[in-house]
Automatic annotation (TrEMBL), chain A:
<comment type="subunit">
    <text>The complex is composed of two ATP-binding proteins (UgpC), two transmembrane proteins (UgpA and UgpE) and a solute-binding protein (UgpB).</text>
</comment>
<keyword id="KW-1133">Transmembrane helix</keyword>
<keyword id="KW-0813">Transport</keyword>
<protein>
    <recommendedName>
        <fullName>sn-glycerol-3-phosphate transport system permease protein UgpE</fullName>
    </recommendedName>
</protein>
<keyword id="KW-0997">Cell inner membrane</keyword>
<keyword id="KW-0812">Transmembrane</keyword>
<feature type="transmembrane region" description="Helical">
    <location>
        <begin position="18"/>
        <end position="40"/>
    </location>
</feature>
From TrEMBL, chain B:
<dbReference type="InterPro" id="IPR035906">
    <property type="entry name" value="MetI-like_sf"/>
</dbReference>
<feature type="transmembrane region" description="Helical">
    <location>
        <begin position="200"/>
        <end position="226"/>
    </location>
</feature>
<feature type="transmembrane region" description="Helical">
    <location>
        <begin position="12"/>
        <end position="31"/>
    </location>
</feature>
<dbReference type="InterPro" id="IPR050809">
    <property type="entry name" value="UgpAE/MalFG_permease"/>
</dbReference>
<keyword id="KW-0813">Transport</keyword>
<feature type="transmembrane region" description="Helical">
    <location>
        <begin position="269"/>
        <end position="288"/>
    </location>
</feature>
<feature type="transmembrane region" description="Helical">
    <location>
        <begin position="105"/>
        <end position="128"/>
    </location>
</feature>
UniProtKB/TrEMBL annotation, chain C:
<keyword id="KW-0547">Nucleotide-binding</keyword>
<dbReference type="GO" id="GO:0005524">
    <property type="term" value="F:ATP binding"/>
</dbReference>
<keyword id="KW-0997">Cell inner membrane</keyword>
<dbReference type="Pfam" id="PF17912">
    <property type="entry name" value="OB_MalK"/>
</dbReference>
<dbReference type="InterPro" id="IPR040582">
    <property type="entry name" value="OB_MalK-like"/>
</dbReference>
<comment type="similarity">
    <text>Belongs to the ABC transporter superfamily.</text>
</comment>
<dbReference type="InterPro" id="IPR008995">
    <property type="entry name" value="Mo/tungstate-bd_C_term_dom"/>
</dbReference>
């Protein structure tokens, strides 16, 4: 009897605050989610309907047709910037960027953490200064350099300059430093040299970190905008995100803007990175927040 | 470095060469190039260039337009940083308190992290469509005749809103993981010492989150300064005109559209110096702050 | 099997700190030597120099009849057990134990045999396919031991291997390690800050303080004949009582003027007097007054804490004697007395 009355009085005030907490969180979730849902709704409608009424509370039947238009029709002159083509380019950029960053970053971080190097401090600062100045700041001269090297409208011209920032190196350096000292000592006594230690022990140990880095870097690469905008002028090289610029410009001029098609392209540009981040949420969060330390 | 590092000489050099050469070619070379061309005046038709010393810089500082852009950038950065941190902190504290559905909320609140800034800008363009955009309609309800891309303040408002929308998730993730990393015993001790939830927040949670908050403050400032490029570019629909723009966007507009290589380079250099000063301040603060929290 | 010789081995870190002053000792084949001292005394640095994980600044290190100053750790024919075990977290127990053998190109069937043998010796048979994270602290400790054993090294090195275990397990593992070492007869160097481990396991103890060797000797020598106040107070729990005293008129006198014992020839002035708690007897007719403040019940015996001549003092009391706090007379066995000069060295 006593117990029951105690829990009752203790519970009542908490409930209201719990409700309030949920209300705040639901409002936040809607703030995040609604814009995308509204855009998604328009992709099911005929363009004329959108122009007249804007987004509505119903699901139309035009999704398949819009998808067809978005994926295989091109809006440009050359006819090469179809959704499929842009998607392929986006994947090449995202994967190539992530792969290059991780491989270079792990190599450099391994050299900095596990070797007695005379010029380690200089190398460290040379590499880590790159964290301070984003590509946007030195965009024009970078463009000139790539132009001089004849790398415009190439995949390596797109990917390699983006790798010239040390985020992954920094991250792996932090991670390697957190690996217990004794592990490399035990391995040395066990007769493992630097290559063996790296392959047999350090890489397997870093698996989760590599996965997390891969997600973060893939998303970062996929979402690149300014650099692809400048480097790729041929429509066959466009990525989805870079294509957005062209889409907005086409919408501005047209008599009947193809909202269904363009909005769906925007959705398609969002889905792969968002899906990866959601599916591999725990790895991704771990990797992201680890870089704080 | 580890206590017992390997003593090989050539292996680490081989390991460093790829990274160092990419950094040299695509970072230091362009950066130096920017410094150099900031002292030259480029012929508008591409016929050579003349050395003009600090004239490009003098022109910039004397230009009312540049000052206006700089002011806008400062206000934009402050607004975006403050709003996205505040909203994220509120959501993270709530998500940390509730017991049910925490994972669902986390997913719902974080996915926008993966949306590219120009796509976020594009979604903004749709939401603020002149004739039927839901947010334009909403503004109309309170008598606000919202015109994106024409009215300076309206475009600025959209820029801040979209930038905040895009940045809340990453702040949320950091705050939440910061909150969840507190030792349980600290919470329990606070629960015993202080009965007021808001008192506990300001006395315990907030100070303990300070390192995370400081880190985020810096990332948010850099985000607002540089990463919002895509948001700005799509919201002004590629037509800078009378629209608000940030310093980074102006570097691009002047250099790429206006073909003013010298002026654009001078702007780049100014930004570089700005970032370096910011970084050094951070570095100093970070050291001080370490001392406060971890000794 | 091997002897280990250190000849004025010294360690100076790049920042100029001298972690180990020039130190020499000679470890016999099959001997179990414990390096003991407070944290920062240089014991781990010394061990790591022997392992080859830390460079030797000066001096000469011999394992067997080779000078190994510049030999890679892998080629020193040693095995090491680390404080946090340093097991490879992604490998099974079996692979952890076999990794060193594999790197030495040992034939597969021989690896199998050796791992099985070690697993049997250490009761790890049921766990060979588990990962370290699925093992208890004691089992991880055994895996680390197994990794050392299979290599048949000339020298075992232990770096505080038991400090991550709880008290009960620590006592058990202490006995197991000692028994194993006896059985294998491998020369062993064991680093610890725990004087009980040092006393119980060592054939010989090396006490270090501030990067310097304070004393080398058998456990009983170290315990009964400490050469300095540092050793006297570091070894033994509770430690030796140390009282300020002086020598005058040919006797050792405490501050209150009590005469304790005859003084050694030719010494005068202030000294420190040391006596083990168990060498003090309660005796109403004793020359010293012991003001007991606190009685600690330990079951088999009691510890009496209080003051003699205004200085902290502790004695042992067997369980069948009762005593109340307050002033009591005590008697000291003069033959058990240790006298130190003002610098802390034994007179």
């Amino acid at each position: 009897m006593v117990d029951i009355s105690v829990t009752r009085t203790a519970r009542r005030p908490i409930r209201w605050t719990v409700l309030l907490d949920h209300a705040v969180l639901i409002a936040g979730s809607l703030f995040m989610l609604l814009p995308l849902l509204i855009v998604l709704q328009t992709t099911t409608m005929p363009d004329t309907d959108i122009i007249q009424h804007g987004p509505q509370l119903k699901i139309g039947d035009q999704f398949d047709e819009n998808l067809q238009k978005a994926m295989v029709q091109a809006s440009g002159f050359s006819g090469e910037n179809t959704g499929l083509r842009m998607m392929l380019n986006s994947f090449i950029l995202g994967l190539g960027f992530a792969f290059g960053k991780i491989v270079l970053g792990m190599m450099a971080a391994y050299a900095l953490v596990y070797f007695r190097l005379r010029f380690a401090t200089i190398a460290f600062w040379l590499i880590f200064t790159t964290l301070l100045l984003p590509l946007e700041v030195r965009i024009l001269p970078s463009y000139k350099v790539v132009q001089n090297l004849g790398m415009l409208n190439t995949y390596h011209g797109l990917i390699v300059p983006l790798i010239a920032s040390a985020t992954a190196t920094f991250f792996f350096r932090q991670f390697f430093r957190s690996v217990p000292e004794e592990l490399v000592e035990a391995a040395r006594i066990d007769g493992a040299g630097p290559v063996k230690f790296f392959v047999d022990i350090l890489v397997p140990l870093s698996q989760t970190m590599i996965a997390a880095m891969f997600i973060i870097m893939f998303v970062y690469g996929w979402n690149q905008y300014l650099w692809p905008t400048m480097i790729t002028t041929e429509e066959s090289m466009y990525t989805l995100v870079r294509g957005i610029k062209q889409i907005t410009q086409v919408l501005e001029g047209a008599a009947v803007p193809e909202f269904g098609r363009s909005n769906l392209l925007a959705i398609i540009a969002v889905v792969p990175p968002v899906a990866i981040v959601i599916f591999f949420q725990s790895w991704f969060v771990k990797g992201l927040t680890e870089s704080d330390k | 470095m580890k206590r017992a590092g390997f003593a090989n000489t050539w292996l680490p050099i081989l390991l460093l060469i790829p990274q160092l050469s990419i950094v040299a070619i695509f970072f230091y070379w362009p950066a130096l190039e920017a410094v150099q061309s900031s002292f030259f005046l480029q012929d508008p038709f591409g016929f050579g260039s003349t050395f003009v010393g600090f004239e490009n810089y003098a022109d910039l500082f004397g230009s009312a337009e540049y000052r206006k852009v700089a002011w806008f950038t400062v206000i934009f950065t402050l607004l975006v940083t403050f709003l996205s941190l505040a909203i994220a902190l509120l959501l993270a504290v709530k998500a940390d308190t509730i017991l049910r559905g925490a994972k669902t909320y986390r997913t719902l609140l974080m996915w926008v992290y993966a949306v590219a800034p120009p796509v976020a800008g594009f979604i903004g363009v749709i939401m603020f469509n002149q004739t039927w955009g839901p947010l334009t309609n909403l503004a109309g309800l309170v008598g606000w005749d919202f015109v994106l891309g024409v009215k300076f303040n309206d475009t600025a408002f959209a820029m801040v809103l979209v930038s905040v929308w895009k940045q809340v998730p990453v702040n949320f993730i950091f705050f939440l993981s910061g909150l969840q990393s507190f030792p349980k015993s600290v919470r329990e001790a606070a629960l015993i010492d202080n009965r007021s939830a808001s008192g506990r927040f300001w006395d315990i949670t907030f100070p303990l989150l300070a390192p995370t908050g400081f880190f985020l403050l810096i990332t948010n400032i850099t985000y607002a300064l540089f990463d919002t490029f895509g948001v700005v570019d799509t919201l002004v629909k590629g037509e800078p005109g009378n629209n608000p723009m940030t310093l980074v966007y102006k570097v691009y507009v002047d250099g790429f559209r206006g073909n003013d290589l010298g002026g654009s380079s001078a702007q780049s250099v100014i930004l570089m110096v700005l970032v370096l000063v910011l970084a050094l301040t951070v570095f100093q603060f970070r050291l001080v702050e370490r001392r406060i929290h971890y000794t | 099997m091997a002897e280990v010789k250190l000849n004025s081995v010294r360690k100076i870190y790049p920042n100029g700190a001298e972690a180990v002053t020039p130190s020499s000792f000679h470890i016999q084949d099959g001997e179990f030597v414990v390096l003991v001292g407070p944290s920062g005394c240089g014991k781990s640095t010394l061990l790591r120099m022997i392992a080859g994980l830390e460079e030797i600044t000066e001096g000469e290190l011999m394992i067997g009849d080779r000078v190994v100053n510049h030999t890679d750790p892998a080629d020193r024919d040693i095995a090491m057990v680390f404080q946090n075990y340093a097991l490879y977290p992604h490998m099974t127990v079996k692979k952890n134990i076999a990794y060193g053998l594999k790197n030495r190109k040992t034939p597969g069937d021989e690896i199998e045999r050796k791992v099985a043998e070690a697993a049997q010796m250490l009761n790890l048979g049921d766990y060979l396919d588990r990962k370290p994270s699925q093992l208890s602290g004691g089992q991880r400790q055994r895996v680390a031991m197994g990794r050392a054993i299979v290599r048949d090294p000339a020298l075992f090195l232990f770096d505080e291997p038991l400090s991550n275990l709880d008290a009960k397990l620590r006592n058990q593992m202490r006995i197991e390690i000692k028994a194993l070492q006896r059985r294998l007869g491998v020369t062993s160097i064991y680093v610890t800050h725990d004087q009980v481990e040092a006393m119980t396991m060592a054939d010989r103890i090396i006490v270090l303080n501030g990067g310097r060797i304070e004393q080398i000797g058998s456990p009983s020598e170290i315990y009964h004949n400490p050469t300095s106040t540092f050793v006297a107070s570091f070894m033994g729990a509770p430690p030796m009582n140390l009282l300020d005293a002086r020598i005058a008129d040919g006797t050792v006198q405490l501050d209150g003027g009590a005469h304790v014992a005859a003084a050694p020839n030719g010494k005068t002035g202030p000294v420190t007097l040391g006596i083990r708690p168990e060498d003090v007897k309660l005796d109403a007719a004793g020359a010293l007054h012991f003001d007991i403040d606190l009685i600690e019940e330990l079951g088999a015996h009691r510890l009496l804490h209080g003051k003699v001549a205004g200085q902290p003092f502790t004695t042992h009391l067997l369980k069948d004697v009762t005593v109340e706090p307050g002033r009591h007379g005590v008697r000291i066995d003069p033959s058990k007395l240790c006298l130190f000069d003002t610098t802390g060295s034994r007179l």
